[in-house]
Amino acid sequence: MNVTRGFTGRPRVVNPGLPPGQYDAGDDWPVLSAEVTPRIAPADWSFRVDGLVERPLTWRWDEARALPGSAYAGDIHCVTGWSKFGVRFGGVSLDTFFEAVRPRATATHAVAYSHTGYTANLPLADLTGGRAWIAWEFDGEPLAPEHGGPARLLVPHLYFWKSTKWIAGITLLDHDEPGFWEQNGYHERGNPWEEQRYSGD
Ligand SMILES: Nc1nc2c(c(=O)[nH]1)N[C@H]1C(S)=C(S)[C@@H](COP(=O)(O)O)O[C@H]1N2
Ligand SMILES: [Mo]
């Protein structure tokens, strides 16, 4: 009997929501930190936007929480290979913060920095248009400290290392300035759909 190779196995089910080279982590949410998890009380947390803006501003916890809320429901993708489907984050859209500080026309890039020293660089365009949040809720619960609580940056359309935990501020620049992982060989932009894992990908 002739068996044509390739017709004997079960068809491989490929999830269309899974970017190339990623796997579905299911209910797991791995913790990935280059830093020891800090315990930051909401009263000690603040978020600043400065650099190339008309009016640099700092929000304390209560002030940030009083802004109009915005939620993300969708997927996240880590460069180490896991993706997580159907997660829900609550917080405030970065657009709301940018409306208050008014980025200058010369601003093209951003560096996000944490209360612990971690940094990540991003094109400003990836932080606007309803695609980036300051998030303090996960599945309706306060964001856990190991996942960046009290609040983290959330940029779900890029690899998750851009989503700076324990977010302290964003500085707008007229040039790209590599952050922590980007200085260590990771991609300036990190689009999972184009598999921009490492510098030069
Ligand atoms: N401040 C800070 N933010 C960070 C990191 C970090 O080490 N410090 N790690 C990044 C990396 S590599 C990833 S994949 C995600 C992991 O988020 P999680 O631990 O909530 O899964 O956070 C990102 N944000
Ligand atoms: Mo990561």
Task: Outline the fold blueprint.
Elements: E1 23-24, E2 46-51, E3 57-60, H1 61-65, E4 70-77, E5 82-93, H2 94-101, E6 109-114, E7 119-123, E8 133-138, E9 141-142, E10 152-154, E11 167-173
Parallel strand pairs: 1-5, 2-11
Antiparallel strand pairs: 2-3, 4-5, 5-8, 6-7, 6-11, 8-9, 8-10
The protein binds the ligand Nc1nc2c(c(=O)[nH]1)N[C@H]1C(S)=C(S)[C@@H](COP(=O)(O)O)O[C@H]1N2 and molybdenum atom.
What report would you give on this structure?
This protein has a domain at 47-183: Oxidoreductase, molybdopterin-binding domain (Sulfite Oxidase, Chain A, domain 2, Alpha-Beta Complex). It has 2 helices and 11 strands; from the N terminus they run βββαββαββββββ. It has helices spanning 61-65, 94-101, and strands at residues 23-24, 46-51, 57-60, 70-77, 82-93, 109-114, 119-123, 133-138, 141-142, 152-154, 167-173. The longest helix has 8 residues, at 94-101. The termini are far apart. It binds the ligand Nc1nc2c(c(=O)[nH]1)N[C@H]1C(S)=C(S)[C@@H](COP(=O)(O)O)O[C@H]1N2 and molybdenum atom.
List keywords for this structure.
201 residues; mainly beta; Sulfite Oxidase, Chain A, domain 2; six-stranded mixed sheet; 2 helices; binds ligand MTE; binds molybdenum atom; OxRdtase_Mopterin-bd_sf; OxRdtase_Mopterin-bd_dom
